[in-house]
Amino acid sequence: MAKQEILKVEGLRKRFKDIDAVNKISFSVAEGDVFAFLGPNGAGKTTTIRILMDIIHADEGAISWNLKGQGNGFSIASLLGYLPEERGLYLDLPVINSLIYLAGIRGMQKSKAKIAAMHWLEKLELADRANEKLQALSKGNQQKIQFIASILHEPEFVILDEPFSGFDPINQEKFIEFIKEINYNGTTVLLSAHQMPLVEKVANKVFLINDGCEIYNGSLSDIYNKFGDRMVIDLAFEDHAPLNKVSEIEEVEDIESVDEKQIKVTFMPGTKMEPILNKLSGFAGITEFRTQKYTLHDIFLNLVKNHRS
Ligand SMILES: Nc1ncnc2c1ncn2[C@@H]1O[C@H](COP(=O)(O)OP(=O)(O)OP(=O)(O)O)[C@@H](O)[C@H]1O
């Protein structure tokens, strides 16, 4: 059975002077999705999110929400969870007071908010800092508090704008687990992030935006099926990598220079390994040969590059 649609966006458009920041995009998010909203810098992600959060208004288009809490006097924005790109909490208040206050204005009882806040502070290894002012915490720890603030009231739908930025790799991995956990417990997630290896661990749907326009909208598995059928080989050479000569191999689609000795070669869809091995055997001084999976990162770069050209 198809899952219930929680958010439907149709023909959304926003212009800033002569820039189409968001250019007639449409998508829908269903209950239980982790919907990855991806795009390069300046693509229009934060503008779209700000429109969804009612911070700015669209010039054209329609947004419909289907949240269980609608109609009980709370605004849509207060029913949602939101981790904004620009962080900002009450620096001068003790952490626990900020969290309880923020959950309160979103309709959560004080006693329940306190229990939930302590639960998340324990999880994020910050329980012993609960009574300190936020400004005494490191930037990464402040970000953890802001994440707690966005999900404490157990929203049906949370928007996380760049949740991994500013975290070390260990905390980034932990946050993947936290996102999976809130999603498992019933929160639908719209996630905007640049770290593709993290995104592909948690998302089931992907929307790719570039220059305000849709360039992919579908499931994560479909994006691999449609665009992922490519072989990638990392090559290292004793001396300078012979970029020009490798690019003459007819099956080569793209070459990325890692450094002067290393290259990453992407082959056309359907390329077989054996003829490539034969061709590469003609190159002197190969010190490393490694096949790789074509990742979401590669697909993303390729789709954006093709859209620009
Ligand atoms: N208030 C504004 N006034 C004028 N232009 C704006 C404004 N806000 C955004 N823009 C422009 O709209 C475009 C989209 O910006 P947006 O912040 O939505 O991109 P983004 O995808 O979130 O980028 P990033 O990944 O860098 O955060 C950019 O060209 C940006 O300069």
From TrEMBL:
Belongs to the ABC transporter superfamily. Residues 7-236 form the ABC transporter domain. One of its GO terms (molecular function) is ATP binding. This is ABC-2 type transport system ATP-binding protein. The lineage of its organism: Bacteria, Pseudomonadati, Bacteroidota, Bacteroidia, Marinilabiliales. Keywords: ATP-binding, Nodulation, Nucleotide-binding, Transport. Pfam families: ABC_tran, DrrA1-3_C. It comes from the Bacteria.
